Amino acid sequence: MPSTSRRTCPTPSSTSGVASACSTSPWLAGSAERRTGCIVTSAGRFRSVSKRVLIIGATGRTGHLLAEQALGRGLGVSALVRRPEALGELQSRLSAVQGDVLDPAAVSRAVAGHDAVLCALGPGRGSPPTLCSEGTRNLLSAMEAQGVRRLVCITGALIGHPREHLGWLYRRMRSALGAAIQDRQLQEQLILRSGLDWTLVRPPRLDNGPARGSWRVGEDISLGAMAHINRADLASFMLQQLDNPTLIRRGVAIAY
Ligand SMILES: NC(=O)c1ccc[n+]([C@@H]2O[C@H](COP(=O)([O-])OP(=O)(O)OC[C@H]3O[C@@H](n4cnc5c(N)ncnc54)[C@H](OP(=O)(O)O)[C@@H]3O)[C@@H](O)[C@H]2O)c1
User: 100: Cβ below 6 Å to ligand 1?
Assistant: First the structure.
């Protein structure tokens, strides 16, 4: 991948909705380069509009990194967690609201007083098959009721990325998983139908390697069999979206 600090815009046809971010938005100010059908972007400068963020899934692998990075950027961070002790050393640095995303009252309590929500909710062993849709339904209701408009939510490339941009492996996985991804598809539909300022983030395989600081992102990037992204960069990208209006009401994939 060539690297450059030049700022260039992709063609609108290749990145509808993303192209307009290029010339004006601080989230691309670090570095951005044109490639086929995507923008390569990096962590760049960060100027936060959202001051208080709620993280769903902060005890998980991406959620933990989201919390660490948000705190490092001086944001006020809260987390809705079932087991506050699972936050480890983060517990003393953020505001933990104990509760289950499937409990509407707990979600409502957690959402109160925030500017934005970052959702890294994911099913684990013993999760009900409707975890993501039901949890998201509660989240959207609470956000709408309390006027918290900004939501950046992870789903997955298998869920909503256009089929023609998926390589053979992801196409086969999508077909094979069938009913198993219905909950995530419903989660996306609920968000798409909401009136909130949402951004759907659809990564392929997640890895735990170190942040690289640059990635491809777009509504129509190609995702081959080896496509992946490290959770540290996924978290960084999600935090950038707090200041990036150009991806509001858009779903994008992110990968190296
Ligand atoms: N793994 C991949 O390759 C891959 C690929 C594409 C997309 N994704 C998606 O990317 C996202 C992040 O993945 P990850 O692997 O970083 O996540 P993860 O480590 O599995 O973390 C999931 C988080 O969800 C929380 N959670 C589950 N049920 C909950 C409930 N009822 N109430 C409140 N919190 C609940 C967990 O809390 P507890 O600690 O209490 O369990 C945990 O904090 C997920 O949506 C995942 O599906 C993953």
Answer: yes
Strands 32-35 and 38-42, by their bridges, are antiparallel
How many Å apart are CA 49 and CA 243, to the nearest integer?
6
Given the DSSP bridges, would you call strands 205-207 and 32-35 parallel, antiparallel or unpaired? unpaired
**Nearest residue CA, atom 8 of ligand 1?**
156
Ligand 1 pocket, 203 CB below 6 A?
yes
Which CATH superfamily groups domain 45-255? NAD(P)-binding Rossmann-like Domain (3.40.50.720)
Global pTM reads 0.87
Domain ranges in the chain?
Answer: 45-255
Q: Which helix (H) or strand (E) holds 154?
A: strand 150-154
User: pLDDT digit string (tens) for 30-77?
Assistant: 233 333 344 555 555 555 566 999 999 999 999 999 999 999 999 999
> Distance between CA atoms of 82 and 58, rounded to whole angstroms?
10
CA of 56 to the centre of ligand 1 (A): 9
Q: How far is CA 137 from CA 14, 73, 95, 108, in A?
A: 32, 29, 23, 11
Cβ-Cβ contacts under 8 Å for 161 (sequence gap 6 or more): 170, 202, 223, 251, 253
